[in-house]
Amino acid sequence: MKLKTVILAGTALAFAGSSALATDLTLVSWGGAYQASQKAAYADPYTADNPDITVIWDESSAEAVAKLRAMNEAGNITWDLVDVVASDAIRLCDEGLALEIDPDTDLAAAPDGTPASEDFGDLLVSECFIPQIVYSTTFGYRSDVADWGGKEPDDICDVFDLEAFPGKRSLEKRPINNMEWALLCDGVAKEEVYDVLETEEGQDRAFAKLDTIKDNVVWWSAGAETPQLLADSEVVIGSTYNGRLFALIEEQKQPVKMLWDAQVFDLDGWIIPAGLPEDRLAEVKKFVKYATDTQRLADQAKYISYGPARKSSAPLVGKHASLGIDMAPHMPTDPENAKNTFLYNYEWWADYRDDIDAKFQAWLAQ
Amino acid sequence: MSDTTQDGQLLTTADGKPLKASLAKALRREKLRALMLIAPLLIFVLITFVAPIADMLFRSVENGIVADTLPKTVVALEAWDSTSGEAPDETVFAALYEDMVIAVDEKTHTRLGSRLNYEESGISSLFRKTGRRIKRMDEAGPFKEQFLDADKDWGTVETWQVLKRYSPRITSGYFLNSFDAQLTADGVEMKPEDERIYMFLFGRTLFLSIVITISCLLLGYPIAFLLAALPLRTSNLLMILVLLPFWTSLLVRTSAWKVLLQQQGVINDFLVWTGLISEAGRLVMINNQTGTIIAMTHILLPFMILPLYSVMKTISPTYVRAAKSLGANDWISFWRVYFPQSVPGIGAGAVLVFILSIGYYITPELVGGTSGIFISNRIAYHISSSLNWGLAAALGTLLLVAVMVLFVVYDKIVGIDNVKLG
């Protein structure tokens, strides 16, 4: 295979002489439906316009942080553009593994001329981060639970209410989001959650609240687990990414409904690895500029129910490419869904993640 | 043998050289040739196996980042008394300013922040925030005021104590952390109760690995016995059944156990249908230790059966027949004659299964819930997610040492010569 490429390249050089060689662009993403949406919305149209570019996908986003560090230490960066969640982007930027960008020169302006820095606004949470989508971690529940006597949960605290809503829950096996939800349901005001969580007493309060349901929780570590657990009736209510629940409800037609209350917004986007050679960097920047423009981000919402990160993309969101349903009501940012939302505090978690994670794991193991 | 003849003359070869020297030369040449033959493999093993492991192990004590990023501050801090209860004076801050200007330029300050944040929450944002402010600071000073203005944490003693404590190039911090201890201003202390986890996980890993090894042995021994006793045609067929799961993807096998064991799964459905358990009393067999033990026993079973089988195959049936003809019953002839001969197989299988299970993490992660996860899951977390490679290296070193100690104990009890793979 490799030999063949070399021979082919050699032949091409010999015959074409001055003509440019095909360029490979290695994009790293999450695989599954999300990567498929990126391919359909950005990569396919881009390669159609630029036939000399070949896009290679690598499904390594889940281990991207560690792999980038290893590549950096080895001095051999093989990735061109990496899709990561915002907290990982911040970590990579801190470690000097991601390249800092200038939004106004590196990213396309909105069609009406609004500079990218304004169009993305607050979502540019790190100097290295190029946001693509807004997703949320929220709950889905089965709508056919006999024990609930016809009631349906409509409040985040129903997750902690075992009397009205008996049954197993699934929560993510990490402190982020769970600690915030626990405090919200323990009577802490939304604005004060992180101040309270910073103190020992606050952390104890959150754990005490989680203790009330601990025996009824299945802990997940991969986003696909909750949809499967819900489909199998293993759990009656569980947290996961909203796009996974959309697929479960609209594509697989399972008797599951969304509980949007206190959904936690999070961001996913690109980072450019630090240390790319000039020529490759130029190619990558060209692609990024195209892939994050207003139309491309709006297009992605045709394939998956995640909200575009640009303000100017929102009005362009249309119908699902194969189901033909209107996508706007399924977006986490839709006003109907976003009545009560919670914003993940990146800076705060970057500081407290190590400490609280140790406590959380010790608490889990008890 | 003597190298002189009877009349005192040296033995020589045909060309007149002393025989001894000539022989030694030939041997040396042969050894060199042999070394050259294995050289590619030796170099390969050294480069791809020994060196990376040594490098990884070294990370468990390596701590050059503080002295490399803030060289002048580290020197200036030597004069500061960390028990004084007061933050250092202007000279230290001036050194910090000089260091930070360079660090911000090279973008290494946030990396140092992440490193120190493992020890004290909040230092990560302290360095990030200060890094953004450093360009706007007045070069003429006074620096203490300006740093305190950028972030008041620069005025707290704890920040500086952490910085001073972790300024040496070699640290015991990661190892202490692995023992659920920490370095504080008053010396080494155990961590608060609610943060102790690693020793507990080490204990659980060892305990569960032993349970898995024993259940593999209990299940594997009769199968290997049967395989060895059956005629070749039938045993080959059965051998394929043993190996079949071996060729299936690990994730598929683990997921299959989920389908079987979960509360709405096949086994529970069957038990409810037969009336053995009630609808409300469905058994919890997954996302706990039971799940880990069942799934891992299944996955590691071939590693027990294969060495057992190959050893049993070499045990001649005539011994058992002889025992029986001398009056022993079935049990005595098995226990006194057959079993002792199969011990080397048990030894090999048990060591193999135990060592494999102690480092497993995918299966416990998927079916272990919270009570069935291993220390390796934490190591994986620190490698891939928290990027605390120093701690991961320290935990890995401890695991390696634990395995080696067990190996020595095993050698003392069973004897390593008593291990046979076939």
Automatic annotation (TrEMBL), chain A:
<protein>
    <submittedName>
        <fullName>Extracellular solute-binding protein</fullName>
    </submittedName>
</protein>
<keyword id="KW-0574">Periplasm</keyword>
<keyword id="KW-0732">Signal</keyword>
<dbReference type="Pfam" id="PF13416">
    <property type="entry name" value="SBP_bac_8"/>
</dbReference>
<feature type="signal peptide">
    <location>
        <begin position="1"/>
        <end position="22"/>
    </location>
</feature>
<dbReference type="InterPro" id="IPR006059">
    <property type="entry name" value="SBP"/>
</dbReference>
TrEMBL record, chain B:
<dbReference type="Pfam" id="PF00528">
    <property type="entry name" value="BPD_transp_1"/>
</dbReference>
<protein>
    <submittedName>
        <fullName>ABC transporter permease subunit</fullName>
    </submittedName>
</protein>
<feature type="transmembrane region" description="Helical">
    <location>
        <begin position="206"/>
        <end position="230"/>
    </location>
</feature>
<keyword id="KW-0812">Transmembrane</keyword>
<keyword id="KW-1133">Transmembrane helix</keyword>
<feature type="transmembrane region" description="Helical">
    <location>
        <begin position="34"/>
        <end position="54"/>
    </location>
</feature>
<keyword id="KW-1003">Cell membrane</keyword>
<feature type="transmembrane region" description="Helical">
    <location>
        <begin position="343"/>
        <end position="362"/>
    </location>
</feature>
<feature type="transmembrane region" description="Helical">
    <location>
        <begin position="236"/>
        <end position="254"/>
    </location>
</feature>
<dbReference type="InterPro" id="IPR000515">
    <property type="entry name" value="MetI-like"/>
</dbReference>
<comment type="similarity">
    <text>Belongs to the binding-protein-dependent transport system permease family. CysTW subfamily.</text>
</comment>
<feature type="transmembrane region" description="Helical">
    <location>
        <begin position="291"/>
        <end position="311"/>
    </location>
</feature>
<keyword id="KW-0813">Transport</keyword>
<keyword id="KW-0472">Membrane</keyword>
<dbReference type="InterPro" id="IPR035906">
    <property type="entry name" value="MetI-like_sf"/>
</dbReference>
<feature type="domain" description="ABC transmembrane type-1">
    <location>
        <begin position="202"/>
        <end position="410"/>
    </location>
</feature>
<feature type="transmembrane region" description="Helical">
    <location>
        <begin position="389"/>
        <end position="410"/>
    </location>
</feature>
